[in-house]
Design brief:
This protein is mainly α. It is 50% helix and 5% strand. It has a two-stranded antiparallel ribbon with strand order 1-2. Helix 7 packs antiparallel against helix 8.
Length: 177
C-alpha cells in the first residue's frame, strides 16, 4: 500500500495542508498546526471519540497500581470496553494513576525489566544469520508477559526462552480476535 502515501501527497498539493481522508479523519501536512491540534486542557477541553475510548478501561477505579489493575481485570473478568470519553472525567481518572507512571516510579521498575531486556537480546541474537522468520510481535509479547508475571505474580513464565517466543495460550487468543 505504498501508493497511499503518494496519493495523500498529491491530495495535499491539490487541496492544501489539511485534508479530510475519511468522515472521522483529517490528514495534516503542516507542522505549525501541531500546537493548535494538540492542545492541553488549559486551552480547551477535548473529549475523546467513543469508538477509541472502548479500548481503555477506567483502571483507576480498580486498583492502587496499573499492574494490580490488570490482575483485577483478569481475576474478576472486568471489562476493557468502558473507556473515558469526557475530558473532565478523564483528568480525574488519570490523576489517580499518574504517580505510577512518573519518571521515579518507572525508574524503580528497572530492576524488574533489565534482566528480561538482557534475555530478549540474547534470544534475538540467536536469529542472526538464520534464514527463518522472526515474528517480532511474539518476541515482545513474550517479553511483556514475562515482566508482568514476575512483577505481579512473582512467577517466571520463561516465555522468552520458548522456541519462536510462542506461548500455548497466544494462538487460541488470536483466533478469538
Amino acid at each position: 500500500m505504498p501508493e497511499y502515501a503518494f496519493k495523500i501527497k498529491e491530495l495535499h498539493k491539490r487541496y492544501g495542508p489539511i485534508i479530510r481522508i475519511s468522515p472521522g479523519e483529517l490528514h495534516i501536512d503542516d507542522c505549525d498546526f501541531y500546537d493548535e491540534l494538540y492542545t492541553g486542557p488549559s486551552v480547551r477541553k477535548s473529549d475523546r471519540y467513543a469508538w477509541t475510548a472502548k479500548a481503555f478501561a477506567p483502571l483507576a477505579l480498580f486498583a492502587s497500581s496499573p499492574i494490580r489493575a490488570l490482575v483485577y481485570v483478569v481475576q474478576y473478568k472486568l471489562s476493557f470496553t468502558k473507556g473515558t470519553v469526557e475530558d473532565d472525567l478523564h483528568r480525574i481518572r488519570r490523576a489517580a494513576v499518574s504517580n505510577h507512571f512518573s519518571r521515579l516510579a518507572v525508574t524503580r521498575l528497572e530492576k524488574y525489566v533489565q534482566p528480561y531486556l538482557t534475555e530478549i537480546i540474547v534470544q534475538l541474537k540467536k536469529y542472526k544469520g538464520k534464514q527463518q522468520p522472526l515474528l517480532i510481535g511474539d518476541a515482545f509479547g513474550a517479553l511483556t508477559n514475562d515482566i508482568i508475571h514476575d512483577y505481579c505474580l512473582a512467577r517466571y513464565l520463561n516465555q522468552l526462552e520458548n522456541k519462536g517466543f510462542q506461548a500455548s495460550w497466544r494462538k487460541p487468543l488470536r483466533g478469538m480476535a
